[in-house]
C-alpha cells in the first residue's frame, strides 16, 4: 500500500513511518522543512514538501495514495489562541484529505485523544467531549468518521495524553521540560489524577492495523497504561533530574491546565480483543527512567 502521512517526523509519526515501511508499505510524507525532508528520506520515506495549511499539496498527496494517515498538529501551545488556531488548521487539513478519498473505499486514519469519564476508565464506546479546550478536535474527528457513509474506510485512533519514547513525549514530557525550566518537578491538582499512556512504537502498530483492516467508522484506543498517578510521574522526573517534587499552581501549565487536572484513565480492552493489538514496549514510568539531567 502507498500511504500518505502528515506529521511523519514527530514522536508518533516517526514510529508510524518505521512500522509501515517494515511491514512492506511505501510511504510519502509531508515535510515542512529541509530537516524534516532529510529525516524522512533517511527513514525510507518519500518527502513531499509543504505544510499543513498547503491544502493543494494535501489534495495531491491523498489523490496519489492508497491510504492516508493524518497525524500533523501545530506545536504552538503558547496560549489558548494558538491552540485554537492549531485546531482550526488541523480541521481544514482533515476535511481536504477526507474529501479527496470520498467514494474510493480507501483507508483514512485520523487521531484524537481518549475521552474522560467521571469515576471510571473511558472505553471505545464513550463519545468524545462536547465541551472543553480541545472540543474542536473532537468535532473534526466526528466529521471525518461521517465519511464512512460516503465511501471512505475511515477509522479513528484515540491517543492517550502521553505517547512516549526514550523518556520524552506527551504530557509527561511537558512535566519534564517545565521542571527543567523551573527547578521544581511540579504536578498540578492533588497529583492523584491518572493519565493513560502508550509507547510510540506500540501506538504505531495500531495505526498500521487500522490502516490495513479496521472497518469504516470505527474507533480504537491506543492505551497501554490505563492510568498513572501524576504525582508518581513527577516523582520519577524529580529523582532523575535531582529536583524537589511539589504541587504547583495549575496555571503553571498554561493552556493545558484544565486538562492536566482531570482524572482521565482509559481502557483499550475492546481494541486489544478485536484487532489483536498487544503493547509490548516499556511503560511510561519505566521509560521516564531514561530522563537525563
Automatic annotation (TrEMBL):
<dbReference type="InterPro" id="IPR051783">
    <property type="entry name" value="NAD(P)-dependent_oxidoreduct"/>
</dbReference>
<protein>
    <submittedName>
        <fullName>NAD-dependent epimerase/dehydratase family protein</fullName>
    </submittedName>
</protein>
<dbReference type="InterPro" id="IPR036291">
    <property type="entry name" value="NAD(P)-bd_dom_sf"/>
</dbReference>
<feature type="domain" description="NAD-dependent epimerase/dehydratase">
    <location>
        <begin position="3"/>
        <end position="213"/>
    </location>
</feature>
<dbReference type="InterPro" id="IPR001509">
    <property type="entry name" value="Epimerase_deHydtase"/>
</dbReference>
<dbReference type="Pfam" id="PF01370">
    <property type="entry name" value="Epimerase"/>
</dbReference>
Amino acid at each position: 500500500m502507498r500511504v500518505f502521512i502528515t506529521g511523519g517526523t514527530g514522536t508518533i509519526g516517526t514510529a508510524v513511518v518505521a512500522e509501515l515501511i517494515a511491514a512492506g508499505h511505501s510511504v510519502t510524507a509531508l515535510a515542512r522543512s529541509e530537516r524534516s525532508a532529510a529525516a524522512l528520506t533517511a527513514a525510507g520515506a518519500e518527502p513531499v514538501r509543504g505544510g499543513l495549511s498547503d491544502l493543494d499539496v494535501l489534495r495531491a498527496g491523498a489523490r496519489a495514495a492508497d491510504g492516508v494517515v493524518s497525524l500533523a498538529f501545530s506545536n504552538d501551545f503558547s496560549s489558548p489562541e494558538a491552540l485554537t488556531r492549531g485546531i482550526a488548521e488541523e480541521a481544514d487539513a482533515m476535511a481536504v484529505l477526507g474529501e479527496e478519498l470520498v467514494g474510493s473505499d480507501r483507508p483514512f486514519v485520523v487521531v484524537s485523544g481518549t475521552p474522560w469519564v467521571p469515576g471510571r476508565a473511558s472505553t471505545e464506546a464513550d463519545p468524545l467531549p462536547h465541551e472543553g479546550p480541545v472540543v474542536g478536535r473532537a468535532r473534526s474527528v466526528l466529521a471525518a468518521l461521517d465519511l464512512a457513509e460516503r465511501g471512505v474506510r475511515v477509522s479513528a485512533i484515540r491517543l492517550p495524553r502521553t505517547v512516549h519514547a526514550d523518556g520524552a513525549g506527551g504530557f509527561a514530557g511537558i512535566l519534564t521540560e517545565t521542571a527543567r525550566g523551573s527547578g521544581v518537578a511540579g504536578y498540578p491538582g492533588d497529583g492523584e489524577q491518572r493519565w493513560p499512556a502508550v509507547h510510540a512504537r506500540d501506538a504505531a502498530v495500531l495505526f498500521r492495523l487500522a490502516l490495513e483492516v479496521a472497518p469504516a467508522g470505527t474507533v480504537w484506543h491506543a492505551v497501554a497504561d490505563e492510568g498513572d498517578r501524576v504525582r508518581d510521574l513527577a516523582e520519577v522526573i524529580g529523582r532523575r533530574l535531582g529536583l524537589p517534587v511539589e504541587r504547583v499552581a495549575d496555571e503553571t501549565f498554561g493552556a493545558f491546565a484544565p486538562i492536566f487536572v482531570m482524572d482521565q484513565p482509559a481502557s483499550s480492552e475492546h481494541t486489544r480483543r478485536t484487532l489483536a493489538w498487544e503493547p509490548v514496549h516499556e511503560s511510561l514510568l519505566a521509560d521516564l527512567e531514561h530522563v537525563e539531567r
